[in-house]
Amino acid sequence: MKDKIIFFGIILVLICGGGISAYGNEVDVDTTKHSYSYLVAKHDFYKMLYAGVPLIGAGLSVHSSNDNFRSFRNEYAKQYHTHYDDYLQYSPAAVMLAMKACGVKGRSSWGRMLVSDAFSVALMASVVNTLKHTVNEKRPDGSNLRSFPSGHTATAFMCATMLHKEYGHISPWISVGGYTIATVTGVSRILNNKHWICDVMVGAGIGIITTEIGYFLSDLIFRDKGLNKFELPHRYGRWHKPSFMGLYVGYNMSGSEFTTPYGRISTNLGVNMGLEGAYYFNPYIGIGARANFVDMPLKMNNEVLPHDIELNSACAGLYLSYPFSSLVQVNAKVLGGFNHYSQFTLADDYMLGGNNSGVFSAGLSLVLMSSRAFNLRFFCDYNNMKSFVRESSSNLHTFTAGSTLGVNF
User: Fold this and answer.
1) pLDDT tens digits, residue range 116-144?
2) What whole-number percentage of the chain has pLDDT above 90?
3) Does residue 240 carry a pLDDT above 70?
């Protein structure tokens, strides 16, 4: 099963990477000086790689950790079961249609928009259903073999991308709102025990990419007909304010060991997932916060324990940025906050976890920015906190390496 997912994932990434999307059609240059075909050729290929492929690649990379991420759900929302995600997935498209019906001027005319969206829906449905019936991944709840990828998430991100392309020029918060709703839909599928995190991340990438291709195909047909071009400010020049919010995903590593009455205990490679965002006052300085959940397997005397240690952390502090160019930045952060460990019995009523502690965190990240919508950051964070072994005088030191796909605002 794992081999099937990796194989089809690689094929999908190669197809997407070799294709063309219409991401650059949100015109941010003087359109009187450049032809429409020039704008498409200038932006499309890079934008395809920038948004969809990293999501698919990240989803495939965490496939082996599906059970670790699912433990969060089982720990905090085991009885969670709702149906609102069945409707929420369509809400960005509903907003787009409502704005259009109210006369708000968007990117496309009614006809051009509907053709673009029809192409997007057909492509998304074809890719998702082909993968579902080929990979045959069992759902977390065991109900069927149609888990990979998440169709609800693909639909939600497809609709959010439609909204972004049609009305993202009005305000970045329209795009932020659409993608936030799409993210909530994906998280809800995990909480409802219908999908693994791998399914959701790959579904999000498919939703974005197929919409870009759908709009590209429509652009080939209509050319300039029914297209409203907007001369937008070049928001992301070198000295813009790099404010963002995004999904924080990584792996936790620690070399810390602690002594208990039953032997030496240490942590294995774990998973880390949460949200991170920052508001910048200028191109260099901002304030922000991170809320994340960590699951780390434990070893006792080199034998893996049946229980993982889980922690919930919330931090806030100073964010710094230096722009090397309009596309590349280096960010740093220094955060402080609060941490809570889950609790379990090791043996003979000897408890681990269940305690609270302060957290100090510092990190560096390489940030790639190319559009008004997205940024991609690769980070390495250091975290220092009190141990989950309560009587230990030593602290737990961890490093988190991963990536954040963020929305700019």
Assistant:
1) 999 999 999 999 999 999 999 999 988 89
2) 42
3) yes
Confidence category of residue 291, pLDDT binned at 50, 70, 90: very high
| Residue the block writes with tokens 């060991």 | 257
| Residue 20 backbone zone (phi > 0: left; psi -120 to 50: alpha; other: beta) | beta
Q: How far is Cα 369 from Cα 329, in angstroms, rounded to an integer? A: 8
Read off the pTM: 0.74
Query: Averaged over 287-299, what is the pLDDT?
Result: 91
Cβ–Cβ contacts within 10 Å for residue 400, how many? Answer: 24
Crossing angle for the helix pair 110-135 and 2-18, to the nearest 10 degrees: 150
Q: CB under 8 Å to 131, separation ≥6 — which residues?
A: 8, 12, 148, 149
What percent helix, strand, coil does the chain show, rounded to 5?
Answer: 40, 35, 25
Mean pLDDT across the stretch 211-216? 90
Residue whose C-alpha is closest to residue 342's, from 361, 325, 355: 355
In the chain, CATH 2.40.160.20 sits at 244-408
74: three-class secondary structure by DSSP: helix
Phi and psi, residue 83, nearest 5° = -120, 10
Q: What is d(CA 258, CA 273) in angstroms, rounded to the nearest whole number?
A: 25
Give the pLDDT confidence of 329-372 residue by residue, as tens digits.
999 999 999 999 988 888 777 888 889 999 999 999 999 876 66
Q: Which two tokens stand for residue 98?
A: 């409502």
The tokens for 307 are 């229980």
Is the bond preceding 149 in cis, omega lying within 30 degrees of 0?
yes
CA-based nearest residue to 208, from 71, 350, 2, 376:
376
CATH architecture assigned to 244-408: Beta Barrel (2.40)
Contact 214, 120 (CB under 8 A): yes
Q: Which of 240, 239, 241, 270 is nearest to 254 (CA)?
A: 270
> Could you give the count of Cα atoms lying within 13 Å of 371 in the half-sphere of its Cβ?
29
Structure tokens at 246: 């995004």
The mean-pLDDT minimum among 47-56, 186-195, 203-212, 258-267 falls in 47-56
- DSSP per residue over 166-178, as a string? HHTTT-HHHHHHH
Q: Are 406 and 376 in contact (CB under 8 A)?
A: yes
